[in-house]
Structures are given as C-alpha cells and as structure tokens.
Amino acid sequence: MKIILALALLILTTQCSEKQTETSVHAKTDTTATGLRYAEGFKVSYRGTIKMVEVGMPYPGARAGFKYLLVPKGESVPKDTEGARVIRIPLESIVCTSTSHIPLLDYLGETDKLTGFPSTDYISSDKVRARIDSGRVLDLGVDKSMNLERLVVLKPEVVMGYTMTSDYGQFKKMEELGVSVVINAEYLEKHPLGRAEWIKFMALFFNKEHQADSIFNVIEESYLETMRLAQSATKKPTVLSGIVYGDAWFMPGGQNYASRILKDAGCTYLWEDDPSHGFLELSFESVFEKAHAADLWIGVGSNKTIAELQALDHRYTKFNPLIQRHVYTSDARHGAKGGSEFLELGYLRPDIILKDLVRIAHPELSPNHELYFHKRLD
Q1: Distance between CA 106 and CA 215 in Å, rounded?
Q2: Are 82 and 69 in contact (CB under 8 A)?
Q3: Complete DSSP assignment for 232-294
Q4: For residue 232, what are the CA distances in angstroms to 268, 295, 364?
Q5: What is the pTM of this model?
Q6: By the 8 A CB rule, do 148 and 181 touch?
Q7: What is the tens place of the pLDDT at every residue in 323-341?
Q8: Dist CA 342 CA 349 (whole Å)
C-alpha cells in the first residue's frame, strides 16, 4: 500500500534529524494548546522547555482530569506544579497497557523503550514481538491484576494506562510504589482522526512532536482524500453492524466512532440518527424490523465464516446481507500469537479502515485497493 510505504519512508528520514532538533525546538512561552485539530481529550502548553499536559476527560463522565508536568532531565522542577504529577523526559522506559499504544511507539521510533506489557500475546507488532521473544519486554500478567512485584523490579519511568471508570485503585498502588502513571484516553475521541492524533500525546514524552506532526499529517491527508472520493458516490448503501450477545443485539450508537467512519465512507448506517456515543443494546426483533433488508453487514465480532455466524443464531439467515453474502469482519489480520491487528493499529490508522470501507461500499471507486483490516465472510 502506497500510504504505508510513504509513512515508512517518513519515519526513517525524520528520526535522525529529530535527535538534533527536538531538544531545542520547544523554547516557547505561550500557554495555549497547540497543534491539535481533532483530538479533544488532551491539551498541552509550553513553558520554556517544560510542558504541561492535561487529560481533561480520562473516562466517561469524569468530573476532573489529570495534569502531568513534563520536566527535562537535569532541570529543576518548578516550585508550583499546579497539582500536576511530575514526569521526567525524555523517557527511557515505558510500560503500556493497551495494544493501541504500541503503534504509537513503533511509528515514533521508540519501540525499544517498551519494557513491559500485560498479557503480551495480544501484541501483533513484529518489532515488539521480536523484543518479547528476546526477553526485553516482560509479561506482567492480566491487565486488571497486573503483577505489581514484577512491575517494581522492572522500574519503568512511566506506566501508560487507561480506565473506563473512576476506579483508580490499581494505578494508585503503582504510584505508592514509586511508579509514575499517565492516563491515555484516546478511546473517548469521537472523530476517527481524533484518535489518531493521540500520537502527538505519546510524542510529548519523547520530545518527538515534530515527527508526530509529520506522521499525523500523512494519515490525515490520506483519510480526507479517501473521504472526498467517497463523496462522489451516487449511492449510499445501508449498513447493519454488530451481533447478538446474550439477550441483546450490541451495535454502535449513532454518534459512535464507527458510525462516523461509515458516514465518511459514503454509507448510510441505519442507526446514524441515534444520539448516543457508546453502544446500543437492542432486541433482535427491533433490529430485524429496521435492518433485515440492509445492503451490507459490517462488524460481526470474531466470526470467520458465514457458517460460524449462522451456528450462533439461525435467525441471522433472514437478513439480506447474509443471504447475498455481503457480510464483512474487521478481524481479518492477527499477530503471531493471535492478537487483533485491527484493535492494535486501527486507532492510529483510520485512513486504512476508511479505504477498506470505501472498497466494500463503492468497489468501482477504488478497484485497486486490497482489503487490509476487513474481509468478506465465505
């Protein structure tokens, strides 16, 4: 894929110059957020070489956020930290807790700083898998019951975590043990490019803002170019998403990230008028009434074949997309140990997701694009 090759070349050509320029480039005195066009979940202000980073909405419904004062190693910490947690930069070691953090390190050329991860089998990145196989990335156990003794022995400079609730218990224990914690809330961004822009968040901790800007600009242009292509389509196919779990059909809300990217792909998501940003839990009957004649069914969990999907619930056979074999999974690519590449790389590369969706919905517009994350079920 041309865009992947372009980004690979960009990463290679910028890493050398970054080492020479990043340490002196931020002699700024303004205190306004800079450089963010889509991300709403964090902001940064510069005070000379010191950065104040604020994560305003660390989890859904949060009433307060977190502040991190990034102070260059060797410099004095200001007397007034404004209640922020102090982090020394640039980082030489980091533990991440979500696979979506991994591509941020890879693209910034900081893969070698990763020293630990909970349940390393979930990681797909070839670069990180090589480090895991050589014993340079420690498996810290299951996320919610991470082995804190191993973590303390590892002594990472930062644990980059995430949380979906106000429960900060495990992270508090880490801080009590002397391990700094930074919350990454990329998953709350409403715009696909907003999630991708969190590469700029990771870059702050390595003094690689310029490289992150360059990488993001390529992703943004790729996304917008594909969106413009989709706008030229004469028909917008209707789309159904999700499957039944237990007694309810789970699918993205109308203002969800997935709904937005379907719209940008020139599709009509049948629940796009719904006002919610999370996921809907609907009865099978209500979904069937509204979506039995849909053109496409995109997003069917980890199911790999039509037969497997039918075996879960025979009622699926009544839907037009299944009858016409227009059912697609986004779980087509996996790492060496079975980790989902879509879950790992998808946040950073919404442009690839969009290209896939345009190829599915409007094959005449991009006949040469080969599906990357997505695959039609046989």
Answers
A1: 12
A2: yes
A3: T-S---EEE--EEETTEEEEE-TTSHHHHHHHHTT-EETTTT---SSEEEE-HHHHHHHHTT-
A4: 14, 19, 11
A5: 0.91
A6: no
A7: 999 999 999 999 999 999 9
A8: 9
